[in-house]
């Protein structure tokens, strides 16, 4: 039997059982075990892990843990090196709409199975958003985030802060239904589709060329604008 000592820095304690938080975790193991495997055996998905120090030296997730190792695990730093594009699991429909409202490319269906999500995230470089730790632990997942909250607006704040999106927000330019970029459309071209009060009080409209949905700055606009200001802080 071999033993390693794991210390998890703030930001990762969320994943640990209560009795293992804010303390050094002593883990016994057999055979050749990667540090990735041992970290995930404690409940911490690898996409949440940043720098790893073993006995004071930087190592990667493939490092084979040795008897007596002292492992310090840091959370992944905020930000994202690429243009942010998201893949959301089937329980995150409301969050999907909020992210699209902010202008972010979000792939979502309410009937995705885990195997489909794993295949999609491998084929198309996207950030996987989910509350399913086991899904995030799949080897094919490189970028991902485990949402802490069940509230979709708080989830939105989490994602904006985690991936440093505040400066990349481009609101009301993407279809909330199908994710396609919207286009400006002349009011006259859609006049027959508008309710009488909408015809009277609104003059600027956008159209989704994919699903034909029409958008304008209706009564919901002020609430959406307030949410955008909140998450941008």
Q: What can you see in these coordinates?
A:
The structure is a single chain. The chain has 233 residues and is α/β, with parallel strands linked by helices. It has three domains: 2-75, Beta-grasp domain (Ubiquitin-like (UB roll), Roll); 78-171, Rossmann fold (3-Layer(aba) Sandwich); 173-216, no CATH class. The chain has seven helices and twelve strands. It has helices spanning 35-41, 93-101, 114-123, 133-136, 152-162, 196-201, 221-232, and strands at residues 2-8, 25-29, 49-54, 57-59, 70-75, 85-88, 105-107, 127-130, 144-146, 183-185, 205-207, 214-215. The chain has a five-stranded mixed β-sheet with strand order 2-1-5-3-4, covered by helices on one side. A hairpin with a 6-residue loop joins β11 (205-207) and β12. The longest helix is centred in the C-terminal third of the chain and has 12 residues, at 221-232. 23% of the residues are buried.
CATH topology of the largest domain: Rossmann fold
Bin the helical content: 25-40%
The CATH architecture of the largest domain would be 3-Layer(aba) Sandwich
Strand percentage, roughly?
A: 15-25%
Tally of discrete structural domains: 3
How far apart the termini lie comes to 50 Å
CA radius of gyration is: 22 Å
Topology diagram in text:
Elements: E1 2-8, E2 25-29, H1 35-41, E3 49-54, E4 57-59, E5 70-75, E6 85-88, H2 93-101, E7 105-107, H3 114-123, E8 127-130, H4 133-136, E9 144-146, H5 152-162, E10 183-185, H6 196-201, E11 205-207, E12 214-215, H7 221-232
Parallel strand pairs: 1-5, 6-7, 6-8, 8-9
Antiparallel strand pairs: 1-2, 3-4, 3-5, 10-11, 11-12
Helix pairs in contact: 2-5, 5-7
């Amino acid at each position: 039997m071999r033993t390693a000592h794991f210390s998890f820095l703030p930001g990762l304690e969320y994943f640990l059982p209560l009795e293992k938080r804010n303390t050094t975790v002593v883990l016994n193991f057999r055979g050749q075990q990667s540090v990735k495997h041992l970290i995930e055996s404690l409940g911490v998905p690898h996409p949440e892990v940043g720098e790893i120090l073993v006995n004071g030296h930087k190592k990667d997730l493939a490092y084979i843990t040795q008897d007596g190792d002292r492992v310090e695990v840091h959370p992944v730093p905020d930000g994202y090196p690429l243009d942010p594009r998201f893949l959301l699991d089937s329980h995150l429909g409301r969050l999907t709409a909020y992210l699209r409202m902010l202008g972010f490319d979000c792939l979502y269906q309410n009937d995705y199975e885990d195997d489909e999500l794993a295949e999609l995230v491998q084929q198309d470089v996207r950030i996987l958003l989910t509350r399913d730790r086991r899904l995030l632990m799949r080897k094919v997942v490189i970028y991902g985030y485990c949402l802490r909250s069940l509230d979709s607006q708080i989830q939105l704040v989490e994602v904006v802060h985690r991936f440093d999106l505040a400066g990349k927000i481009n609101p009301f330019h993407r279809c909330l239904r199908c994710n396609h970029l919207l286009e400006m459309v002349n009011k006259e071209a859609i006049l027959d589709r508008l309710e009488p009060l909408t015809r009277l009080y609104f003059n600027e409209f956008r159209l989704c060329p994919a699903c034909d949905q029409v958008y304008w700055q209706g009564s919901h606009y002020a609430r959406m604008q307030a949410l955008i200001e909140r998450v941008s802080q």
